[in-house]
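Sequence design from tokenized structure. All designs in this work follow the same two-part layout: the structure record, then the generated sequence. An example of the structure record is given first.
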């Protein structure tokens, strides 16, 4: 048992990896003895039980697949800083290809991984420093691509949050105004949508045909909603 007493901690990390999480997520910074204390939970009942009562283990290992040399791609959490920088353009390209294929959820996951790499590097820089700004300018187009995926997945409030965070730093970002306008329109924030679309036209008048189409779509939806509300309320008051 003494040889496997720390296995529950290792198993938790492996389970985090399998779920696409940081292997150290939720791990407390304390000594091993404190980790083993009865009030500490790993979040898995079977591991908690094994932690309380260590016993000899037998491992049954199954080979799932064999990776060809050079084909294995590390998860972002396992990369060095240099590997993260080198991986971002490749992950970005993979996301774009998935998006072109109509695999929007998969593309969003790729953009998220690329953003995570850059955010990890950015956390090590002084906010507002040249290096921090350079990384932020690499994050922004990836975040806009991510927002485009979320628009198509109808996750509008996430789009509102991300685009607003971009516009708090870059007030002239046309794409952020346009995507936020679409998200506002989708959740019936009419005045906010109109304001964002107006800002798009101020910054880039050449986009008038595209903006006009969005505004016509919003107006049509409003008329349809008004008609539905009249029928609904008429039914209520006639009872």
């Amino acid at each position: 048992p003494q040889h496997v007493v720390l296995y529950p901690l290792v198993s938790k990390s492996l389970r985090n990896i399998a779920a696409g999480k940081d292997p150290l997520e939720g791990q407390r910074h304390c000594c091993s003895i404190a980790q083993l204390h009865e009030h500490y939970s790993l979040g898995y009942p079977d591991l908690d039980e094994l932690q309380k009562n260590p016993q000899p283990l037998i491992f049954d290992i199954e080979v799932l697949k064999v990776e060809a040399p050079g084909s294995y791609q590390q998860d972002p959490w396992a990369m060095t800083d240099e590997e993260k920088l080198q991986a971002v353009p490749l992950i970005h390209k993979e996301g774009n290809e998935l998006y072109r294929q109509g695999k929007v959820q998969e593309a969003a996951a790729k953009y998220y991984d690329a953003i995570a790499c850059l955010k990890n590097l950015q956390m090590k820089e002084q906010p507002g420093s040249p290096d921090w700004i350079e990384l932020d300018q690499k994050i922004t187009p990836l975040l806009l691509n991510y927002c485009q995926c979320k628009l198509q997945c109808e996750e509008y409030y996430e789009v509102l949050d991300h685009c607003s965070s971009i516009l708090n730093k870059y007030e002239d970002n046309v794409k952020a105004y346009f995507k936020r306008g679409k998200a506002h329109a989708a959740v019936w924030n009419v005045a906010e949508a109109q304001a964002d679309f107006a800002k798009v036209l101020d910054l880039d008048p050449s986009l008038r045909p595209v903006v006009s189409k969005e505004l016509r779509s919003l107006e049509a939806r409003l008329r349809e909603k008004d008609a539905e509300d009249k029928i609904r309320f008429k039914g209520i008051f006639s009872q």
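The radius of gyration is 25 Å. We note this feature because it recurs in several other targets discussed in the main text.
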